[in-house]
Amino acid sequence: MVNAARPSRADYYQVLADRLPANALVVTSLGNASYLWAAMHHAPENFYVEDAMGLALPLALGLAIAQPARPIFVVEGDGAVLMHLGALVTIGAVAADNLTVLLIQNGVHAASGGQALTNAGLDLAQLARSAGIARAENVATPEAFAAAMGAAKTGHGARVLVLSTKPDIEVVRPPITLDPVLTKHRFMSAIGAPRYVPTLFGGGRLAHD
Fold it and tell me: Which end of the chain is less enclosed by CB atoms within 10 A, N or C?
C-alpha cells in the first residue's frame, strides 16, 4: 500500500538495473515507466510499450510463456492494472515461474497528468494474491526491493512486487526515440524471433533470416 514517505521510481529502477539477470527481458508500460528505464538502462532486450495502457502485463505473460529460459520483468502502474484486472487473474492461472511483475503504486494516473486513482490506498498485493498469485508482496523501500530481487525466483509461479513510490508527473526525456515499430524490430532481433511475413489473403509465415 502507498505510504507517507515514498521513494522515487528512479530509486527502484537503480536497484533493478544493478540486479537484473544478464539474460532478462524487461517490458515497461507507457510514460515514465518506459522513458526513465530507457534513460537509465537502455538495451535491445527492453520492450517499451507506448500508448497501450494496461497491456504491458499481457505482453509480458506471452513472453514468459514463449521464452521460458529467460527471466521476464514487467513494470506496470497501479492505474493501468486496475484498468485491466483480468491480466492479474490470467497471470495467476498460468503461473509462469519466470515472470516478475513490478507494480508501481504511486496513487495517480501519472502518464495522463497525475489524476488521483479512485482508491489510491488499495492493497494491490492482497488483490494479486486473491487472483491466484501467491508470491505477491508490498515493498516500501529500495532496500526491501533489493532483498526481494535476491530471493528465490523460480518454482512457485509468478511474483508481484508492489513498489510504493511518490508520483513522477514531470515527463522524463528518453535518450532514444521510442518508436513502436523500431522497438518491436530491435526487440525481435535481440531475442532471435523470426520475422512474420503477411500474405495477401490472410495467414502468413515466419521468415527465419
Answer: C
